[in-house]
Amino acid sequence: MDILDKIDSPADLKKIQKTKLPKLADELRRMIVGTVSKNGGHLSSNLGVIELTIALNYVFNFPRDKVVWDVGHQSYAHKLLTGRRKLFHTLRQDGGIAGFPRREESPYDVFNTGHSGTSISAALGMAKARDMRGDDNSVIAVIGDGSLSSGLAFEGLNNAGSIKSNLIVVLNDNEMSISPNVGAMSAHLSSIITGERYNKLKKDIESVIKAIPAIGEQIASFAHKLDDGIKGMFIPGRLFEDLGFKYVGPIDGHNINLLIDTLKKVRKLERPILLHIVTKKGLGYLPAEERPDNYHGTPPFDASNGNFNREPSYTTYTKAFGEALVHLAGENEKVVAITAAMMDGTGLKDFAERFPERFYDVGIAEQHAVTFAAGLATEGFKPVVAVYSTFLQRAYDQILHDVCQMNLPVIFAIDRAGIVGEDGPTHQGMFDISYLRSLPNMTIMAPKDENELGQMLGTALTIEGPVAIRYPRGSGVGVEIDKEYKKIPVGQGEILREGTDCAILAVGNRVYPSLEAAKMLEEKGISCAVINLRFVKPLDRELIKEMSQKVKCIVTVEEHLLMGGAGSGVLELLDDLFMVHPPILRIGVDDCFVEHANPDLLRERYQLDANGIFKQTLNFFNKCQKKHA
Ligand SMILES: Cc1ncc(C[n+]2csc(CCOP(=O)(O)OP(=O)(O)O)c2C)c(N)n1
Question: 317-470 sits in which CATH class?
Fold first, then answer.
C-alpha cells in the first residue's frame, strides 16, 4: 500500500499527484476487501464510492467543510483517508472503529448515520447554521438512489430547494438499493442515465409531425435542427431543477479527474446543487460486481474466491418466518407480504416468487409500508409487514395513527429484534417492546424458537387487530418445524419448568438460556420455575398471579431495554392487581445504546446469556433471603 500508507489525513492526500490517485483507489479497494473479508461488513456500497471519496477529500477541506454520508454504510474509504487507517483492522469489533460514521470517533464524521434518508435534512441544518454564523464552508450530503426513495429524503429536498442555501447533494446512483432499486423515482433516474426519456420523446414528436400530410417530412427535418431546443425543454434532472436545485450530471462516478473538476466547479455555486454521479456497486471485486446484493452486508468470507466461510448451524428465524408465510399464504389468499427494500433480509424471496401478485417491495419507505398495509387491511386483506425492529421505529406514527387507532389486522413480523451485533447502536433492535406496548389494541408475541415463530404467525392471522411478532437475528435453536401451525391461545404463557423458590418469566430468545440458568440454580439447591411468556401483551395475568403467590422472587428476562419492556409490564400488572407480590428482578439492558461487537460477547457483557441470568438470579435470590431472614 505504497500510497495509502502515507496518508494520515486529507492534507496528506492533497500532496499526492493526481495521476497517482487511480492507484490509491486500487489500494483502498484492496484494504477494504481484505478487512471486510475478515470482520464482515458492508462491501459493495463501499467499493462503489472509492473514487468519489478520494475526490471529495481532495477538493474540500474537511472537517471545516462537512460531508454527511447517508446510511453511512459506504464510509470506509472516508475513514481510511481521515486518520483511521491504522485502526481499520478493528472495524466493527468490540472497542474498534464503527462500521458507520460516529462523531465520537473522529471530527471528520460530522453526523452519525445508519438509517436511510437522513443526510439531506442534517446537511441542510448544517448549511443553515453556517449561514446564520456568517461562515462560508461547504456542506455535502452523499445519498444513494435507494435512500432517495425514503420520505425523509424528499422532505429534505423539498425544504432545501425552497431555502436556497448553499448545499451540495451528491446522488450516488448505482441503480441498486440492497437488491435492484424499485419505484418511480428509480425509473426516473434510469431514464436520465440511459437518455431514454429524451429519445422516446423525440421519436414520438417526429412520428406525429411526419404523419401530417404533405408538409410533415419538411417540418421533421426542420425539427432536427431544433434538436437542442427540444433537449433543453426536457433536460435530464428537470425534476430536481423544479424542486429548486441546480442539476449537474449524470457523470461517471469512477472518473476521479472528472469528479475533482466537477466538484471544484460546483463548490463555487451559491445555491442547492444536485450532482448526479453514476457508479457500479461492488466495483473492483468481481464476486461483488456480479452479486452486489450478496456482499451488501456480508459475514466474513474467503477473499480469494468470495466464498462465505460458514453457514448458520440451524434454520434462521428469518428463513423459518419466510417458509411459514409461504405455507400460510397458500391456505389464505388474503395474505399479502410487504417489505421496505429488504426482501432477502426479511426472508420474503420465496414468497415473492410464489405469490408475485401479493408481494410488495415499496422501497426504503417504512412509513409508507405501514400505512399502505393499513389501507389493504381496510379492504379485508391480511398484510404482513416484514421489517427489522430498528427500521420500524421510523413508522411509529403510522402504527399508532393508521393501524392501532382503527384496530386494523396488520401483522408486523419484526426481525432482528434484540441484539444484532456488529452494526452497532443504530441497528440494535432494543426498543420495539417499549414503543409497541403502549399502543392500545396491539398484541405482542415473541417466540422461544423457530418452530413457535410459525405458530405465532398462524395465530396472528386469526386475530382481528394489529399483531407484532418479534424475533431475533440469526440461527434458531435447532428444533423441528411442525407441519401444522397450531393456534396458540391469545394471552397464554407456558410453564416449561416448575419451581418453588423463584420463577423466571422469559421473553423470546431468552427462554432457552433461562432454562439453562434454572438448571444451574438447581445445582445450587434453588428450585426455579421457567415461564415462556409468549405474549408480552396481553400478559398472562392468571399465570403471573399464580406464580407470584407460589415463589419467593420473580425474575423477568428479555433481550430489550428495561425501560418500558416486558419486565415493566409484569411490574405494572402485579401492582395493578393490588396484591402483595414477591420482589421482582428485571434482567435486560439498562438505559443505554448498545455498541457494536459480536452478539454473543454483548449478551455476556449485559449478562443476558445463561451464565449471566444464573448469576443475577442467584444474587437476587440470596439478597431476598437475607432480607427475610
Ligand atoms: C430506514 C432504513 N431502512 C432500511 C435500511 C437498510 N438498508 C441499508 S443500506 C440500504 C440500501 C441503500 O441503497 P442506496 O442508498 O442506493 O445505497 P447503496 O447501498 O446502493 O450504495 C438499505 C435498504 C436502512 N439502513 N434504513
Answer: alpha beta
- Is 270 a residue of the active site? no
Using the mean position of ligand 1's atoms as its centre, give its distance from the Cα of residue 495 in Å: 41
To 10 degrees, what angle do helices 541-550 and 566-576 make?
80
Quick count: other Cβ atoms within 10 Å of Cβ 582?
17
pTM of this prediction? 0.93
Catalytic residue among 319, 394, 448, 603: 394
Q: Is the CB of 280 under 6 A from ligand 1?
A: no
**C-alpha dihedral, 299 to 303 to 309 to 315, nearest 10°:** 40
Centroid of ligand 1 to alpha carbon of 116 (angstroms):
6
DSSP annotation string for 234-267: T-TTHHHHHTTPEEEEEEETT-HHHHHHHHHHHT
DSSP string, 282-340: TTTSHHHHH-TTTTSSB--B-TTT--BS---SS-BHHHHHHHHHHHHHHH-TTEEEEES
pLDDT in tens, 249-280: 899 999 999 999 999 999 988 899 999 999 99
pLDDT digits (tens, 9 = 90+) for 553-584: 999 999 999 999 999 999 999 999 877 789 99
> Can you name the CATH fold of 4-195+236-290?
Rossmann fold (3.40.50)
Nearest of 251, 304, 349, 227 to residue 52 by alpha carbon = 251
Domain covering 495-628 assigned CATH 3.60.15.10 in the classification: no
Domain residue limits, the chain: 4-195+236-290, 317-470, 495-628
Helix (H) or strand (E) holding 412: strand 411-415
Check 51, 366, 452, 559 and give the catalytic one: 366
